[in-house]
Amino acid sequence: MEPMTFEEYLHNNKIQPSGTPVRAIERRVTEFPKIMLLRFRLDYALLLCALRLHWLSVCSADPDDVSEEALNVIYNSAMSGVIPSRAVPPEVTQKAYRTAEEDRIQALPGLDQPPNFRQYSGYLNASDGKYLHYWFVESQRNPSRDPVILWLNGGPGCSSVDGLLSELGPFHIREDGKTVFYNPWSWNKFGNVIFLESPAGVGFSYASDGNLTAGDASTAVQNYAALLDFFRKFPQFRKNDLYITGESYGGFYVPTLASVTVADGKLNLKGIAVGNGLSSNSLNDESLVFFAYYHGLIGEEVWSALRTHCCRGMPVTRENCDFQRSGLLCTNAVSGVFEIVWRIGLNVYNLYAECPGAPQGNTQWARYATDMKHLFSHARDTSMPILKRYEEDRYFKIDGDHTYFHKRELDPPCINDTRIIKYLNDPKVRQALHIPDRLPHWTVCSSIVSENYVREFNDMSPFYRRLIRSKIKILIYNGDVDMACSFLGDEWFVDKLNLDVEESRRPWRSQGQIAGFVKRYNGIDLITIKGSGHMAPKDKPVEMYKVITTFIDGNGERY
Amino acid sequence: MEPMTFEEYLHNNKIQPSGTPVRAIERRVTEFPKIMLLRFRLDYALLLCALRLHWLSVCSADPDDVSEEALNVIYNSAMSGVIPSRAVPPEVTQKAYRTAEEDRIQALPGLDQPPNFRQYSGYLNASDGKYLHYWFVESQRNPSRDPVILWLNGGPGCSSVDGLLSELGPFHIREDGKTVFYNPWSWNKFGNVIFLESPAGVGFSYASDGNLTAGDASTAVQNYAALLDFFRKFPQFRKNDLYITGESYGGFYVPTLASVTVADGKLNLKGIAVGNGLSSNSLNDESLVFFAYYHGLIGEEVWSALRTHCCRGMPVTRENCDFQRSGLLCTNAVSGVFEIVWRIGLNVYNLYAECPGAPQGNTQWARYATDMKHLFSHARDTSMPILKRYEEDRYFKIDGDHTYFHKRELDPPCINDTRIIKYLNDPKVRQALHIPDRLPHWTVCSSIVSENYVREFNDMSPFYRRLIRSKIKILIYNGDVDMACSFLGDEWFVDKLNLDVEESRRPWRSQGQIAGFVKRYNGIDLITIKGSGHMAPKDKPVEMYKVITTFIDGNGERY
């Protein structure tokens, strides 16, 4: 069967073909409680409102206290029956939701040698009519004893199956988009790995009512419900150690989900790992300005403009400057930096790698606009010409040309995933993975999810504090030439948590070479991977394998 | 004939096997005028003393004026008969110094296809008994019209023939150390290139009296004398455009030599190009601290120590900090940074490349000690334990084990030049290059030259100002992941010259990809090569070729 058109998709999923989804969302965010009640089922709305309202007071209150309250809302929901699965909805869902044995992948197209491990693909019930597609690969070592590892790619809106097929999964796809080869550094060499497409709308995941709006809190709730459902489907893994891991915007997904998991206490969570994660919006933005200058991307003219307009004429330092609230001229200077990093054709995910097809025009505008929107949220109502330009691009260039669904793809810039898109949209592959015919074309990232995503949190500190108190092991690793989420922002983030240092920063080695630097805090292992971009399991597979196995499997050995 | 032993070399060249060459040099530098008179011939001594003495007043005087006077000393010497060649000394020299036609390379061992250009190897008379080995490759395009390009590797003490065989020359050596292949991005595709081993003592260059002591001024004088002698040997190139180019410590060799050349007015100098050059000692040192932090090599602990001890508790910025004169605790903090950059096994010449054989122990100590010596010249007499340790290593580890001459090699760390060392020490190759049998083993860098080199200048600004006034075209290019001479130090250096900006900083492209950033000042083209280390013609040959041809050959075209 042909993938449906975009119009069919909208119709089938009851999505209004709104020309201004972002503006709508922004209104919702501004007039939050009232609008939310109309949009979500009551229990969700209560949960999110409470979270949001409590969160708004974070700045002036003790962060741990607020976190406690905010989290309690999730926990209470989780434990009061909101999250557990409900009756499977009709149509697609009845075909899609099946038992573990029905989800078993019998033969993966394009694979010569059958794998020496069991694997499953199907759906997990994420509550409230959301069904999240998962692809589960058992360990190649000892499935019954090895840990269960959940992997979440970021975005928001990007697919964890991309992470499977191009980063840490056992199968990688050849250039032909048809044949499959084994990745020798797959994380299922030592763990049972779940790749979860989240939230609904991402990849093959869907919402039976077509509502693909999600935010930080509702995504945590969806992910937790799906995780509970996983252990319902696969009860034999309930007693294994559980690790929640992820990348990029997974820096928000992982600690929030882990906090819910800890609070609910049903699962055997041992640790979390976050790769090139967003941990704090402001530290990520700020650090990028410094990263850009000291990596030679901006010169003395821009630096001097920043000094004048953002730093009250003082030297450009974190302490002297406020890049967000220093007025129009500062915003223009900062936007100049962001324009260079995101828009001119650099590979934002790996400064020293090529940017295939650069510059990618629309797509890059889209990602950039998303970023700018976030940075300059305070300046929305000013008459800044540069922001206006971004907004126009956002609406006209992207939304103006979507005859077919796949035109709305929001591929990450400078990353060529053509082979994976081709592979996953092959009807034989979809069939092998038990994907219902009526679901649309698979894309790396969903622009609908991304554009409608409500970013409720600004900083993950309270969640990390909570996890550390609960003795959850934490790994934060960063490829050090990534600009989307730079190592520097995460180092500042962890440093700010003010934890005791257990082992001073030192180089660590792989194959006799210095592979990065590691610093161990009481609660967090912080490690850089030298020369790696955003996707460390892809850029530096050998080094990354050493890091993750040492963390998960190493019994306190040195990196 | 067997390469001679180190003892034979010392004896033949009348070198005292001193255990403390550096201490001796340091005494000389401190008690400069008196000692210098004893060590050099009178004309040299006058020249150097005058230069040195004038230079000492640079800080308080107008730099251009001082430059004028200091340079006049060189010019006067150059024009008053000091520099022109004198009677060829006996023995080695009589065999070594020959006519151009005698210098012609008839067949280069290991090369399958004879080249489509003429090439020569022999000696140039650098005056005062110094004979510098040159290897000259004519242009593959139009030798009679193409420019003459002099290339100088740095060190001090390193060989430009290494630059020929591993960077920009037409011949590169295969791993076997025997066979030769053509480099498609050789600079002799568009120019007649002279590779000059300078000063005497480097590579196959020698001093007939065994005096291998040199400094910034005497090296400029040697180089200029050799250049004059080149045009005496090859008068047919006298009217061609001349470019003086070089790398690393060539950042000092090139502008000083160019200034002498301009002042003397005999040669047709059109421009200079400096790659990853040292331009200012203090800016190079300072910038490295920032480079290290913002590339993730040092963490918050070291940064905080720098803040406390070097920056009076204020944020770490160029403006707030004095890394050289803030006392012992600051020196310790800075030495911690330098230790990480130079000593732990990182490739200082390309942060993201491997370090073959890392850590190389002695060799790295040696280079590091050289660097430390320079940075902490003010702290020589303090009882700093860390400096003492370096000095001990310098004397005992390096000097304590030199049964054979080649044990004293000072190979650059993390660079595997084994194939080139093997090739150039093959007796058949030496014969083809017309190297006298009695000269010792060829090494990439000479520790004798390096350790005895007198660094007289601190900053090249006055020389650049002079060249700009004389309308000499200038290119400063930097691989941006080099730490030995970081792009940042050179950007700061050029910025400080306060030149008018002709073209704002912008990305430039090669093969559709962003290859770096370029900014054009009135007088200087400043350009970075993204992802390249110290040796851009080796690391990024295609990109480098575009840069150098645009500069030399481009008639003002855009990079």
TrEMBL record, chains A, B:
EC nos: 3.4.16.-
UniProt xrefs under Gene3D superfamilies: alpha/beta hydrolase
Domain of life the protein comes from: Eukaryota
EC supergroup of this enzyme: hydrolase
A GO molecular-function annotation: serine-type carboxypeptidase activity
Pfam family membership, one: Peptidase_S10
Family to which this protein belongs: Belongs to the peptidase S10 family.
The protein, known as: Carboxypeptidase
Lineage: Eukaryota, Metazoa, Ecdysozoa, Arthropoda, Crustacea
